[in-house]
Amino acid sequence: MPDLAHETLRAAFAAQSLFEDKTWQLSPAAWPLTPAQVTELEAIGTACLEFHTALETLYLRSAAGKNLLRNKPLLAPWVADYLDRGKPAGLVAHARDPKNRGMFPTVLRPDLLLTDDGFALTELDSVPGGIGLTAFLNRLYGGDTDPAVVGHGGAMIENFHASLAALRPAVRNPLIAILVSDEAATYRPEMQWLAEQLQRTGKRVFCLHPGDVFPLGNELFFDVEGNPEKIDVLYRFFELFDWENVKVGREILEAWASGTVAIAPPMRAFQEEKLALALFHHHLLAEFWAETLSGRSLKLLRALIPQSWIMDPAPLPPGAVLDGPRIGGRMLNDWRDLAAASQKERDLIIKISGFHETAWGARSVVLGSDCSREEWQQGVGQALQLAPTNLHVLQEYRKPKKVSHPLYGKAEGGLPSVASAKDGRLRLCPYYFVVGGQARLSGALATFCPPDKKIIHGMVDAALLPCRVFSLT
Description:
By secondary structure, the protein is an alpha+beta fold. It contains twelve helices and 19 strands. It is 29% helix and 23% strand. Helix 2 (35-64) packs across helix 3 and helix 5 (131-142) packs across helix 7 (188-199). It is globular and about 65 Å long. The two termini are 17 Å apart.
């Protein structure tokens, strides 16, 4: 695939409503991945799905007071307490409903930072944005026929539909409603685009506002040219902290309970908590993960997931220490001792675990080494203050390494824009759609930020790119 001209890119983005009011840096080329990196990404997808399977077992056994190990006693009721904290009783009961057993997110998207030691998995999102955006970029940079593009041949679009249609196997061409809440409205254009692409292939997929959906009996409907159409599968594009703001939230659960609609991702709040990654590193649960995960996935996740801790301010007896980092050369007895950490010791990130409006978009993130002592102390204090309802996670910061990629500069004096290599740091977001019990790698979105940006996310200074496989030979 030849490099794309600046005007070609500008025209393509301007013609799409999904990019309205959004700007970023442009590049003539997709982000290069080696075959070895793609192989690793495929293994990461398998590991992420295994992780979710193990997490469900951990949560349900903890909630039921059951033993976690096969041949050794291990009870951990505190796990369910952590994962259920601050959640409405109705959602907790729904998550534990036996009919939900084995129901996992249909799309998984880890956030991977490219470091000197390889990838670092900092989050695992089950309600990710960027599906339509990545599918569009795949087409723009490689079409549907370039086998080198990660997600070529429309894999993002096709596997998104396949993962949802599989939830109602008895229904031929099920009607799928993508329900986008007001909180997630900035993503509605890309979801509308995604639905339109599927409609062109004869699939019954519609992007709806919650106000478009209404119940009739135990079923959910919406109007199509004045005629009510029954919804078979509902893809909820809203996180569960937003559930009570969704007009038909309770009716959705009632329709699910009656078996008339399938919901993806399942409305199980424990699957949306960032503290799950800290549970993976918890020393009391090491034997559980080793017993539950395959050897390959266990080894991979141990290398990928940065050391993480749950900031639970429950008091300790004298002489006891926290499962946490060392500050001033000693173990912590109280999370408030974090406030005294030096800047060198503050190579740590604080972020809210979930079920809160600041839990997405890096809005709750405090990077200790990149803020003042006062800001760090405020971040520690807020995390402990909110702990009764919203736990925070403390995570080791793994700095992305500096890499380079061509970007277009500003055109001057009517001359065409010229691309040149720029330094920056990379976050890679692969998308896996779960079909037939397998996590299918269907595309990957690269976010390339200037080197001075410590926290990588979509911004006007970043380039958003699809990925393409390049051989080193």
